[in-house]
Amino acid sequence: MTVRISTAAVILTATIAGCGAPATENKQLPPVKPQAASLQEGFSTMENLVEAARREGSLTVVGLPRGWVNYGEIIDTFSEEYGIKVDQLEPDASSKQEIELAARLKPDVFDLSLEVAVANAAAFAPYRVQSWQDIPDEIKDHAGHWYAGYGGYMSIGYDPHRVAPPASYGDLLKPGYSVSLSGDPRQTASAFSGVMAASLGDGKTGSLGDGKAEARRGVEFFDRLRKAGNLAASERAASVVLDWDYHNAARAGWKVAIPGQSVLSSYYVQAISKNAPHPAAARLWQEFLFSDRGQNLFLKGYAHPARLEALQMRGTLDKELAAKLPATSAKPVMLTIPETDAAKTYLQREWNRKAG
Questions:
Q1: CA–CA dist 351, 356 (Å, integer)
Q2: Who is most buried in 50, 69, 77, 205, counting CB within 10 A?
Q3: What's the predicted TM-score (pTM) here?
Q4: Which of 323, 322, 287, 324 shows the shortest CA–CA distance to 308?
């Protein structure tokens, strides 16, 4: 049977629908621009950014070990909060390897040492997080290509059941200490920094020279350790490890000493790939890392959040977590890029011959 609907019925239905719905102003929001250099420019609101990231559905990271500065919890929290899958590739890749693997793995974001980030800034998409002003000027690229997320101090980690607390780097030359770096200083950033920290000794000046002079003093110190029989055969066999404080503080049963008037500090920086397959998710990841919550999650991994001073001023710093950071009154000093380059050149030439 054919059912016929009269024109009058259609008109009546339309009239009723029109009367029942209040007139609304049709506000046209600006279009989302996932590759924009700021939240306001690209998404207008956090809600729009979250929605765009959820539509992409995933985020690809590389070189993020889950045990490094609490990255396991950071990744899981981000994924659960926003419903975005995080693909974790090559977690043990170094900063240099992250860049080398980028063409094949296509990561959305990077976590890099400062010198690697500076050398590869052209590969990153500029983006300024909402808390951009809280990041100290000296640890961010003013064009927004990279910006420090967290850092640490070079420290002496020691097993208190095997050795007495060292009051200086010089104490490590005494009988009974077995000292190791966290890798080969010609290949591993933290081991390189251990050599440079030892070069400061008890740090009376609070400043660095040209890089080469510090590298030479560091190599000479390890040569003295070797001659004293205090170099460990491996990190596992050592009673002392020179490493970043966030690594040493995480060693079960170990204690951390940061002696002297100056201490070598360094930051790891964040960046978004210019070719990020998930540009909205990449930007949401950065907003999360630099939020109060994200920065306190770094703190839970014993790292120093880049926004530490701002968190303190605004009362959003987790004081209980902050109290667990290794205590020190030393003044932090940082290597410049030229100093780092000069030091690495010296180590490549002299380490194996004198201290390896």
A1: 6
A2: 69
A3: 0.87
A4: 322
- Using the predicted structure, report yes or no on whether residue 223 has a pLDDT greater than 70: yes
Class of domain 40-151+266-322: alpha beta
What are φ and ψ of residue 157, in 5° steps? Answer: -90, 135
Q: Which of 265-296 are b and which e, b meaning 16 or more Cβ less than 10 Å from the residue's Cβ? A: bbbbbbbbbeebebbbbbbbbbbbbbbbebbb
DSSP-assigned letters across all residues of 125-184? E--B-TTGGGS-GGGB-TTSS-EEEEEEEEEEEE-TTTSPPPSSGGGGGSTT--EEESS-
| Nearest alpha-carbon partner for 41 in 162, 189, 137, 144 | 144
Quote the crossing angle between the two packed helices 212-227 and 337-354, to the nearest 10°: 30
**Residue 154: strand pairing partners:** 244
Q: What is the pLDDT of residues 229-263, one digit of tens each?
A: 999 999 999 999 999 999 999 999 999 999 988 99
Strands (E), the chain: 58-62, 85-89, 109-113, 124-125, 147-158, 179-181, 240-244, 255-257, 262-273, 304-305, 331-333
How many Å apart are CA 335 and CA 264, to the nearest integer? 8
